[in-house]
Fold this protein.
Amino acid sequence: MKPLMHARSSVRKFGGAPEDYLPIHEKMDSTKAAHAEVTHRCVFHSAFGIFLIEELFGQTLTNSDGKEVFVRDVAEQHVLEDLGCIPSLSDWLKEMPSQPWMAGARKLKASEIELVPARGRD
């Protein structure tokens, strides 16, 4: 789903206007700008990512109806709509193969890094 669609869904659940929630949903999908594959979601679409969103936006927001809404609830709703569950960061990372450069054992030249082809789009 696009951020605006998530924001409209938040309105149905929490009241207010899409603009009340759009910054949260845009941030959650912002990693797509740096990594245009579904795996971009590993950053904010996890229990840890939801914690980061709450840290960035605060524990609550007051929507345009004057209702206080938990930011965590908005972020959880986003992940549930996209994935159907809230994975841990470990759930994401265990699917990524470990590479020697990740341990910093030695510095690799750019030509030594094996790039994995894109799998799919979000």
Notes: The chain has a mean pLDDT of 90. The helical segments are 3-14, 18-29, 47-57, 71-83, 89-93. The radius of gyration is 17 Å. The CA atoms of residues 3 and 57 lie 16 Å apart.
